[in-house]
Amino acid sequence: MVNIQKVRDVMMSNFTKVDGVMKVSDALNMMREKKINALLVEPRDENDVYGIMTLKDIARKVIGQSRKLHESHVYEIMSKPVLSINSDMPIPYAARFLTNFNVSYAMVIESNEVTGMVSLNGMVSGWKD
């Protein structure tokens, strides 16, 4: 029997959630300190959904548009909604899922709770052939 790698095997369980009103400059400092490339943005209320802000968002939507990091808020540049993947999903399907939507990250769900984040980089780095 073949042991199929699952999303839970390569997910980042040390992900960080932030409030969308946070300044991009503060978020970037947090990302540098924690050595992470993406932040999960908390829903505002029970009718809202999670967002995500990545280094690519900062590069394209702040730096690339000559905006100031300390004058921009996370909610202005984040992507929303975030794709979610079940922790039991086999990595090949998860990789296809993310690439079909042309995104690099998804939040990982287990028992209706966000338990981590997964990236295409993490899938490739953690892949055992």
Helix and strand layout, with pairings?
Blueprint: H1 7-10, E1 17-18, H2 24-34, E2 38-41, E3 51-54, H3 55-63, H4 74-77, E4 84-86, H5 91-100, E5 105-110, E6 113-119, H6 120-126
Parallel strand pairs: 1-2, 4-5
Antiparallel strand pairs: 2-3, 5-6
Description:
The chain is of the alpha/beta class and 129 residues long. The chain has one domain (7-126): CBS-domain (Roll). 35% of the residues lie in helices and 20% in strands. It is built from six helices and six strands, in the order H-E-H-E-E-H-H-E-H-E-E-H. It has helices at 7-10, 24-34, 55-63, 74-77, 91-100, 120-126; strands at 17-18, 38-41, 51-54, 84-86, 105-110, 113-119. The strands form two sheets. Strands 1-2-3 form a three-stranded mixed sheet. The radius of gyration is 15 Å and the shape is globular. The two termini are 15 Å apart. The model has no long low-confidence stretch (mean pLDDT 94).
